[in-house]
Every structure is written in structure tokens, then in C-alpha cells.
Amino acid sequence: MGICTAPDEYQTCMDGTLGDLDIVVVYLDDIIVFSQDEEEHLEHLRIVFKRLKKYGGSLNGKKCYILRKEVDYLDYTLSAEGIKPQAKTIQAIQKIVVPRNREELLRFLGIINYYRDMVPNKTTLCKPLHRFTSSKV
């Protein structure tokens, strides 16, 4: 059967380790530390490092990015200016060909739905397409 719940268990462990800190976002093994300035960031890093050490966590230095003004995370770019889809994602969406069948349309709508907060009037724009997703069409 395998360990199909391993990601859930890992996330639960990480939530237990860092989840009470309002200075971090944790998704599996990706940890983002938020701060207003460099001094505050260094203090936040100390807090996170201390907590990881306490619970036996470790970091891969080659995968750590410290004091970044902008971070790519789960297909988004995060910065002080806000959250936006990564440039490569926007380019990929722009290259999508017109869906030729129901499955391709569902795939396209799924991609758009993932970025729903970034698409003004998404519901109104996609409404005409949804009628073609029925298996009766």
C-alpha cells in the first residue's frame, strides 16, 4: 500500500513545529520567513532556526535563500508589492491552444481556477465555457 499519507503527516509535523509563528508560511519542506526589514528578518530567522533545532529539524543550505526581496513559491512570485503568477506561468498560459475537447477545456479551466484571485471577473469570463464541460455536450 505504501505510505500515501506521508505528505499529510509531514505537513502536520511542520505545522506543529512552526505553525504558531505568524512570521512563516510552511508548505511541506518549503518555509518562507516574512519580515519588514533586514534586522527584523535576521531576528525572525533566529527564531525559526532555534525552533527547528529544538524539534530536530534541519535545512539544506544549498536550497536556502536568505534576505530575498522576492520569492517564487508554488507558481507565484511573492514580494512587498504583492502576489502574482510567475512570469513563466503567464507565458505558458498564453501559449495554451484553444481546447478541442471536454478534457482539454477542463484542464484549461483548472489552470485558470488555480489563479482565480489573479483573474478579474473570472467567474463571468468563464461562465460561457462551463456549459461545454457537461458530459452531455
From TrEMBL:
Task: Please give the superkingdom of this protein's source.
Answer: Eukaryota
SUPFAM superfamilies, A to Z = DNA/RNA polymerases
Pfam families, alphabetized: RVT_1
- CDD domains recorded for this chain? RT_LTR (cd01647)
Report the InterPro entries cross-referenced here. Answer: DNA/RNA_pol_sf, Retrovirus_Pol_polyprotein, Rev_trsase/Diguanyl_cyclase, RT_dom
Q: Which residues form the Reverse transcriptase domain?
A: 1-78
Record-given protein name: Gag-pol fusion protein
Question: From what organism does this protein derive?
Answer: Phytophthora palmivora
Instruction: Give the classification, highest ranks.
Output: Eukaryota, Sar, Stramenopiles, Oomycota, Peronosporomycetes
